[in-house]
Amino acid sequence: MVYRVHPSERVPHHVDRDYFLRLLSEHIGNNGLLFDAEDLRPYECDGLSAYRELPWIVALPETIEQVQAVLRLCREHGVPVVARGAGTGLSGGALPVANGVLLSLAKFNRILEIDPVNRTARVQPGVRNLAISEAAAPYGLYYAPDPSSQIACTIGGNVAENSGGVHCLKYGLTVHNVLQVRIVTMDGELLTLGGSGYDGPGYDLLALITGSEGLLGVIVEITVKLLPIPPCAQVLLASFDSVEAAGEAVAAIIGAGLVPAGLEMMDNMTIRAVEDFVHAGYPIDAAAIVLCEFDGIAEQVESDLLKARDIFRTRGATDVRQSTGEAERKRFWAGRKAAFPAAGRISPDYYCMDGTIPRKRLPEVLHRIAELSAQYGLMVGNVFHAGDGNLHPLILYDANNPGELERVEELGGKILEVCVEVGGTITGEHGVGVEKINQMCLQFGTSELAQFHAVKRSFDPYGLLNPGKAVPTLHRCAEFGAIHVHRGRVAHPELERF
Amino acid sequence: MVYRVHPSERVPHHVDRDYFLRLLSEHIGNNGLLFDAEDLRPYECDGLSAYRELPWIVALPETIEQVQAVLRLCREHGVPVVARGAGTGLSGGALPVANGVLLSLAKFNRILEIDPVNRTARVQPGVRNLAISEAAAPYGLYYAPDPSSQIACTIGGNVAENSGGVHCLKYGLTVHNVLQVRIVTMDGELLTLGGSGYDGPGYDLLALITGSEGLLGVIVEITVKLLPIPPCAQVLLASFDSVEAAGEAVAAIIGAGLVPAGLEMMDNMTIRAVEDFVHAGYPIDAAAIVLCEFDGIAEQVESDLLKARDIFRTRGATDVRQSTGEAERKRFWAGRKAAFPAAGRISPDYYCMDGTIPRKRLPEVLHRIAELSAQYGLMVGNVFHAGDGNLHPLILYDANNPGELERVEELGGKILEVCVEVGGTITGEHGVGVEKINQMCLQFGTSELAQFHAVKRSFDPYGLLNPGKAVPTLHRCAEFGAIHVHRGRVAHPELERF
């Protein structure tokens, strides 16, 4: 399925491909370029596989200078550019543009420096998330954010999407764990943003770049914070006979002032799918389970576990188990981390949503999702970062049934609209990409969207970087029917500028 | 002393003051306007009292609509605007512009909502930092960032400066504790940035605004995170017979993986000044003291205190005392928080610097500061957030001695240059304001500065908000002599644009 690019988001040009390939090859050599349909195929989508598009050209630069050269050439000729890490993103942020260059950072795969005294790692963007922790392990250090895809996803993609993971409740998202990035702008300028200091002078462009989904610049180097590996970590697995009870137990844990390293919830459908797949030891009859991990020094972990266990029991847990050692702890988490692929085993296709809600609205939102699921006749599993209020409803479907994907998309959109309605957001950690671009029109008013575009122009006045992603044009929103009703505002006077 | 505005930073206009006052009064009434020299006097400086300038007009709006009206009028007539909270800032960020409106947020002093379930407080920008914690206390909650000025400073100023405090080592700066802000742009548009979710869709304009020193918009509402008041907190006071030994003990505490709530250091000169002033119980013969606080549950605090005490002893502490209760704990901190005013008692004037350095460079930097102090014949006391590597050298002087302030400024500049040289930054938490604007030319290259200006234009294309602060024009840097040598780069081709 091809992504429906809105006419206002197209970047037309009339450059001849062979001519442009010759120009590119002068800077990065023929080995760094792909153009045969066969070679382009692996780049046609990212983790949001429902949408596919062959890029015009794939460029694989090896040096910062080569990235600068590619971007300068593209800018000169008005050619759009989409940067790509490992392609594990779930919102289509790395979906190619049919007439654009797909800029892969795959060759930027070196760890440049581990500094155990200052507890930092300086790495290239194509380094895998888990590889940083592996390189830091000899110093007793690790990189905290752990997306479920951490074996495969790259740190550059993590920064672009501001990725989360099961331990973000305590350790924060990518933005809280990055100290410095170097980016190349569409003009080919190399900027160093952020630094070793706690606060930095100047505008916080480091935070601005983090989560900007490849629209502002291409990340070519990253310095991340490392943390000491906690001396002790154990996880509780609590079973409940209703999703509501599990939700209330989660609220009680947070309400008691405990700070779990992770606090995750799964419903029965997901439990069964996972258990059948990775044999994590989950109770397949439970309506919901909560995983609650504490880490730190042994005394504190023990004390926190005791308190959490009490809370779970008081809140109606039918069973509470504690991991008996590192192997079991890892097995409990392996189940959670395999939830998405497990869904893929019980259904030909699945669509993973990602929204956040205020924690106190959890029971109500779960109820609304169940209603929508029944209404659309589509099964929805629920896996979520309960502590953060970050939901991941998994819609199961079969793309071979005509019209089913369209129904799935509509249901997904409705779920996101419920999130916005209760005061939440349309993304927790997966980004907007192409997947949720229409819902951005509900999330924001025209003033905010206009400001987003103004910031975008301050980095990329030509609109060549990852066009059609993350921030909708006001034209798109007008057609989506959102602009003239949002927050009671009428159409923005500056609409015509976009 | 009048701040030397660079010609490229001036915003000339020929608007008649009486005429403009009439326009303003139509929107905010005569009670919201000050224009007599007598009434303008209290606004002529902020905490950086070395620079003074009377504003053209002071406006005190009461509603968001009035702020919008003031900004729209100023934009229409090309009148510059400086927003002001309590005026406790230390870098001159709220220094008025002679032909501009000083926009005081003093009347925005209401706490709009405390939400104990979601642990948030929604407040107006003129609410004092400490007032938020006082309002949250009945729910067992508090607002964590605690600048030394927290009795007086306002949360709006905290956001504008991304303020820190002694507990930021564990709880983060303002940016880590703010969930949402509403700002009015120079166009009079009201934008809502950030939200309740953990990550938000769209660019992270909340982080961009935080610490932007009033250059991008006027903050009119803020939602902050509240935290549960820790059930237990105790502080160690360790004495050392050399500053170097104290510095190494600090590094050892961090190196052991401990996370103190605060980790502060003071040298002998500061200890004596403070002790004489607030009788905090500090050892006046120590070359340096370290304050090290842990908070959390009692078992963990006990365990952490034991470990830290061991480290201090091993690293040569001549004495280690532990606060015996809440009263003593508060007294130990009272000394630290009074360090600046205490310096004011032993010297007619003092100048507080604010730079950060990588922690491992601490002994070397302290040595360089001592050398510079001798060279300039000016006493320098050292108080700092040791855990963060955030230094606050206090230069003592007498403004009545002709030429002495100029020597102080030169010495201050040299100290900041040392910070940059060792890989640090020219500000830790006080902002750049007018104080460090020249050193920004050393901190950043022209590409970064050009990008800062581009971002500024995306919010305020007319350059009317707080002109001459925080980000130097490239013309200023060229005259300061920094541009053509920084990082081996030659003058920026786009220099002429600024």
From TrEMBL, chains A, B:
Entry EC no(s): 1.1.99.14
GO molecular function, one term: glycolate dehydrogenase activity
The name this protein goes by in its record: Glycolate dehydrogenase, putative FAD-linked subunit
FAD-binding PCMH-type domain ranges (all copies): 51-229
Residues making up the signal peptide according to the UniProt record: none
Keywords annotated in UniProt: FAD, Flavoprotein, Oxidoreductase
Cofactor: FAD
Source species of the chain: Methylocaldum szegediense
Enzyme superclass (EC): oxidoreductase
Top-level taxon in the UniProt lineage: Bacteria
InterPro entries: FAD-bd_oxidored_4_C, FAD-bd_PCMH, FAD-bd_PCMH-like_sf, FAD-bd_PCMH_sub2, FAD-linked_Oxase-like_C, FAD-linked_OxidoTrans_Type4, Oxid_FAD_bind_N, Vanillyl_alc_oxidase_C-sub2
PROSITE patterns hit by this protein: FAD_PCMH (PS51387)
Gene that produces this protein: glcD
